[in-house]
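User: Please predict the structure of the protein below. I'd like the answer in C-alpha cell form so I can feed it into my own downstream comparison script.

Assistant: Understood. Taking the following sequence of 162 residues as input:
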Amino acid sequence: MAAKQGLVEMGLQISTDHILDWLNRENNTLKNHEQFAEKFDLFYPVKERSGMLVPKKMGKESLATIFFDIRDEQDYVDKVGSFPPSTLRDLIRAHVHVQKSSTYQVDDMEIAVRIDGRIVAGKYRRVLAPVTDLNGQKFTFVFARLIEAFQPELRVRNVTSC
C-alpha cells in the first residue's frame, strides 16, 4: 500500500479518489493540477442538441488518448464522431448533466467501438466534473482509468469488419 501511495505522490498513478479530493480542495478550479495535467481531458461546455463534444485539451496520457490513439483535438473529433449515434448521445448527455447540475459524476462505463478498423472494448471508471479556469471560463473535466479488476477485458485488435 505504501508503494502505491508513493506512485500517486510522484504522479505516476493517479486514483479516482485523488481526482475527487483535488476537485474538492480546489473548488472545481483548474489550478494546482501539474502532477496529473496530462492525465485528463478538458471540453468546452456542450449543448444537448449538439452533435459533438469539442475538446479544449486532450491529455497526452489520458485514457481516451491512449486507447483511441488520439493525436490531437481534431483527431478526437474525427474518431469519436465516428462512434454509433447512441454512444455519442450518451456522452453528450453526461457532459450536459454535469454542467447543469454543477456537480461531478463518477460512473463505471463499458465501451466497445470500432476506430480505424480496430475494435476497442473495455471497462473503465470515469469522472466528469464542471470546472472553471483561472479566468472563470467553464469546461467539463474528464478523467478515466481502467477498472483494475477488469483490465483483461480491454481488447484492441485489428478487424476487417465489425
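That's the full C-alpha cell string. Residues 85-101 form the longest helix (17 residues).
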